[in-house]
Amino acid sequence: MRSVSEIAAAPSDWTLAASIHLNTNILEINLINLILVLGILFYYGRGVLINFLENRERTILNTIQDAEERYKEASNKLEKARIRLQQAKIKANEIRINGLTQMDREQRDLVDAADEDLKGLEDSKNYAIRFEKQRAIGQVRQQVSRLASERALESLNSRLDNQLHLRMVDYHIGLFRAMDNKSD
Fold this sequence. Notes:
The chain is an all-alpha fold.
């Protein structure tokens, strides 16, 4: 039987094996070395490369899924924000309309109150005018009555004075005649 050293390689082959080495200088690499390196890299690196690519693919897919989920969430939030904005616009429009309606109502109420006040003042003025007119008419009536009474009294006095004067004259004439008749 052969020894292990004989089976593995003959001593003359060791010098040949010592001369085989891996040349890393890219400019001095020949085609065989290049194919050998690429083959080794492909054989051993294939699993690593496949794992790397699969991991990278999963990472990219997870990133895309996360981005799609964030996009959906952002779209939902945007839609909700648009709905809230539309509701806010509607509410603002209602408030504006209610404000304008309230303003119109208050304006009408103020105009009505001013009209009522004006009517009250007009009625008060008319009442004051009627009162003063009645008072003036009463004063004129009193003055007319007083003047009429004074004139009537003066006229009566003057007639009475004339009649009294005539009677006195007649009386005196009658006295003179009676005295004349007695003396005759």
